[in-house]
Design a protein that fits this description.
Length: 89
């Protein structure tokens, strides 16, 4: 699974989501362990706890967390929170 496919799953699974997915470390070609990092911005996160926001992302990944994805680092934001506190704010 590549980063574009993970982004597509997240954006298709969460209303109005914008996802940026990277591989946070250099993959070992012999032992690729599918570690990903995602920044996800969506108004669907409004009023949800951080745990519930992350659960929405896991749900959007449709079971790939147990097959194709070994680990997922996540940052989730509402659009307003992203403007104030996002990675480049």
């Amino acid at each position: 699974m590549d980063t574009a496919e993970v982004e597509r799953l997240i954006e298709d699974g969460i209303e109005d989501a914008e996802a940026t997915v990277t591989k946070p470390r250099v993959p070992d070609e012999d032992h690729e362990d599918a570690h990903f990092a995602a920044v996800v911005v969506s108004p669907a996160f409004e009023g949800l706890s951080l745990v519930d926001q992350h659960e929405l992302v896991y749900d959007a990944l449709e079971g790939h967390m147990t097959t194709d994805i070994h680990a997922m680092e996540m940052q989730t934001y509402t659009p307003e929170a992203y403007e104030k506190h996002g990675p480049d704010a």
